[in-house]
Amino acid sequence: MPSSTTVTSRRRFLATTSVTTLLPALTSSPALAAPAKPFKLNFILASSMYGKLPIDTVLTQLKPTDATHIDIWPASHANHREQIEKLGHDKFSQLLKKHNAKVGIYTVYNPGILKSKPWMPVCKKFGGSILVANAPGPRNLTGKKLQTAVDAFAKKLDPILKHAESHNLKIAIENHSGSLINSPEAQQRLLKTLPNKNLGIALAPYHLPQDPKLLSDLILKLNKRLFHFYAWQHGMGCSKKLPKHQELLQMPGRGSLNFAPLVAALRKINYAHWTSPFMHPVPRGIPILPTAKETTKEILRAQTYLSNLIPKSA
Hints:
Structural class: alpha/beta
Strand order of the largest sheet: 1-9-8-7-6-5-4-3-2
Distance between the termini: 51 Å
Mean pLDDT: 91
CATH architecture: Alpha-Beta Barrel
Largest sheet: 9 strands, parallel
């Protein structure tokens, strides 16, 4: 039986020790710590996948794909930027509200990143956070010639990047095969030359060797500078008209590229930006499949394929 002195000591301890005093010790216990948030891919809908269908129609497709944001593409791959300007910003804002949608990206291949300033306030106005385009300049350079060309482009891009920062926007350069910043070497040279955290890469595996190890290693090297991921493989290409089943080989889960190592690399860097199941139809400006419903079904199939590559315990 405890002595009266022991009981008194216990009472004094409980009276002088508040819950808030004990809380830090309790919450710091590994057993009581909040579980880590499971890794998932955040999907965004590229409007170009729907060609030149009305923007109102495209916005109706966000909910079926469980996406909340849209990537606005201009002519010639689509014409949704032009549709928005014709419709008017106020009416487009109403459409966004109607569909519980937000703009995430403004793709500005037209007129190009170096002439993108006019689209920055528009992108920001609709809630966007990233501008995507490629880098003009000679392609397939290596060594000293590549360094010189990338450094020259970086000087031109720097004031554009600063202007984007003033609108709280990031810039993502796509590794297009017809542009200066294509190879892993070129991408890393650009990011080293401009270490600004608001400049990154929009990675399109389509434009690189279809080697899962090369691609996954590149993802790891880009790390926090990877701002957008096109889930897009080469398949049989997109430069000439093919039967639809062959054209669709660009989509994840259809062609021969194994996306599992790529998704594993995205998980390893805890990639939190957007992923876009993607392809280009021939000719440009048409939906990837005849109707919005069919297009969305194919995008949803690709999303499911990619999501199933993430371990259930992730």
